[in-house]
Amino acid sequence: MFLENTVNPKEQFGWIEVICGSMFSGKTEELIRRLRRAQFAKQKVEIFKPAIDVRYDEEMVVSHDANEIRSTPVPSASNIPLLADGCDVVGIDEAQFFDDEIVNVCNDLANKGVRVIVAGLDMDFKGNPFGPMPNLMATAEYVTKVHAVCTHTGNLAQYSHRKSKNDTLVLLGEVDEYEPLSRAAYYKALIKEKLQDIDVESPINVGANKNDVNG
């Protein structure tokens, strides 16, 4: 369980918390939980999300279990500092979709005394580090990695496997497009996809069959 930092009024610096993991791992749910605690404590809180994320709502940050909190959609990270002026706590959801400037924005806010809570996918559907997330995790004081449950094995899942053939890096979707998989299940899924892509009627195979017949 993550324990919030105790604020030292003599230290005028904030900090960065990163919540990361695969899809369906509860990242946004944990983000909302921390932000609601801050709101309950009468702290000034602002929440931001990338404007392209309109899966559930254009303004609300919504978790997969239907928890929600009002946010401000922004087209780029550079819009956040002005809108976050005077805040005690800033929450940012789906940080992987922001440009690299989000790293500087979060650090500048923390250096001004703001508690910054960031949630995002740590890996894309190919299993590679996603966007600015690695740099955010490196500069954060606290990193919480949450896990989903693998739909194939029931083990902890850390990969977001895309079920469709779409190879676009950014593809917003839910259970129809993605499933959380463990390392073993993800590796097996990749092997299966590679085998399916092999053209069994390639010229080499066809030629080999003809030679066999002639022989």
Question: Can you walk me through this structure?
Answer:
This protein has helices at residues 27-40, 80-83, 101-111, 133-139, 183-197, 203-214; strands spanning 15-21, 45-50, 60-62, 68-70, 72-74, 89-92, 115-121, 142-146, 148-149, 156-157, 159-162, 178-181. The chain has 215 residues and is α/β, with parallel strands linked by helices. The protein has a domain at 15-146: P-loop containing nucleotide triphosphate hydrolases (Rossmann fold, 3-Layer(aba) Sandwich), CATH 3.40.50. Strand 3 and strand 4 (68-70) form a beta hairpin. Helix 3 (101-111) packs parallel to helix 4. It starts with 14 loop residues before the first strand and ends with a helix.
The count of DSSP E runs of length 2 or more, i.e. the number of strands, is 12
The level of helicity is 25-40%
Largest sheet report: 6 strands, parallel
What CATH calls the topology of the domain at 15-146 is: Rossmann fold
**β content, as a range?**
15-25%
CATH homology group of the domain at 15-146: P-loop containing nucleotide triphosphate hydrolases
Which CATH architecture of the domain at 15-146?
3-Layer(aba) Sandwich
User: Strands across the major sheet, in which order?
Assistant: 5-2-6-7-1-8
| Number of continuous helical runs | 6
Poorly predicted runs are: none
Q: Terminal Cα separation, in Å?
A: 70 Å
- H and E string: EHEEEEHEHEHEEEEEHH
